[in-house]
Amino acid sequence: MEYDADSTALIVVDMQNGFCHLDGSLYAPGSEAAIDPVGDLVDRAHDAGMPVVYTRDVHPPEQFDDAHYYDEFDRWGEHVVEGSWEAEIVDDLPVGDDDHVVVKHTYDAFYQTELEGWLNAHGIEDLLICGTLANVCVFHTAGSAGVRDFKPVVIEDALGYIEEGDREYAVDHCEFLFGEVTTSKELSFA
């Protein structure tokens, strides 16, 4: 599959210390294993002149204090708290000067962020999506992209996960519901 670097962006979802580093509170070996494949995609995108967008899942300590139902700290425990080491992108994926970083406070990178406006302002139509966790933030971001009329393409060999079945679930549902799935090897950039 060939993608136009002028109308495509690589979206790197939540490759942060809290998920990818052994000392992270939500560390998963599958997330750590995604670092090198994601890094290779970032390098290829940079070489092609394709925009790279990193998302960071960040929670202010008081975010869920008044929650009625939705409380990620109840579900996952306290994680990637604003200003913490956990909330930073892993050192192995240095953010370039021209890369865009989106701070989000929930699973969906479009929800109450500037991501959609930034993509539209840059003429982006197709999104190559990688990162972690496959069945949580990657899945919700890809679905949200699709309903906003961006073409989400999930890169299945560059996804972090807790259990292998989580990745398989996300890949199957992304392909069935709203997008395409491919591998790094099948990608080329024009």
Automatic annotation (TrEMBL):
Pfam families: Isochorismatase (PF00857). InterPro entries: Isochorismatase-like_dom, Isochorismatase-like_hydrls, Isochorismatase-like_sf. The keyword Hydrolase applies. Keywords: Hydrolase. Residues 8-185 form the Isochorismatase-like domain. Signal peptide: none annotated. The keyword Acyltransferase does not apply. It comes from the Archaea. CDD domains: cysteine_hydrolases. SUPFAM superfamilies: Isochorismatase-like hydrolases. GO terms for molecular function: hydrolase activity. This is Cysteine hydrolase. It comes from Halonotius pteroides.
